[in-house]
Amino acid sequence: MQAPERHPLTITVNGREHTLELEAWVTLLDLLRERLGLTGTKKGCDQGQCGACTVLVDGRRINSCLTLAVMQVGRSVTTIEGLADGDKLHPLQQAFVEHDAFQCGYCTPGQICSAVGLINEGQAKCSAEVRELMSGNVCRCGAYPQILRAVSQVAGIAPDSENAEHAVVTGTVPA
After folding, report:
1. 17-53: b or e for each residue (b if 16 or more CB lie within 10 Å)?
2. Measured between alpha carbons, how far is 13 from 158 in angstroms, rounded to an integer?
3. What is the pLDDT of residue 66?
4. Average pLDDT value for residue range 96-122
5. Where in the chain is CATH 1.10.150.120?
6. The pLDDT value given to residue 169
7. CATH top-level class for 6-82?
8. Per-residue pLDDT tens for 48-71?
9. What is the CATH code for 91-166?
């Protein structure tokens, strides 16, 4: 039996260039996690429906489970591991901490990378647009109000008062 054909790939991940040979079917997600050891990006549904695998490619958010690694030749990929500047967290990472915008934390890397891409896109002008444009990122724990506050803060979007009477107080469990 002949070994599967491998294809050369040069890709920059978190500012570091990598040259590898991969089978054509290897997804960007599997390249990151299994070949480069960057396990911050999570494998959720593996069908592009949950957003846990969201990374930035050339500054734009994508589901890494839905793209083949060989399609990213010459591109620059940023994962959750590449957002901080040494010990200094990215402003969105810091906002997630300040707003307690995670519970189990599984979706957090994808949420943060998606939010960075959302801010780069510059389309969200209000909380409703943030909610809509982040709707591809699922949080099974339901930390959506805190995620919305964190993203809105960094994006410079004023919080809406439409649900003020139902506001979630950080550190409490809503009834």
Report:
1. eeeeebeeebbbbbbbbeebebebbbbbeeebebbbb
2. 33
3. 97
4. 96
5. 91-166
6. 53
7. alpha beta
8. 999 999 999 999 999 999 999 999
9. 1.10.150.120
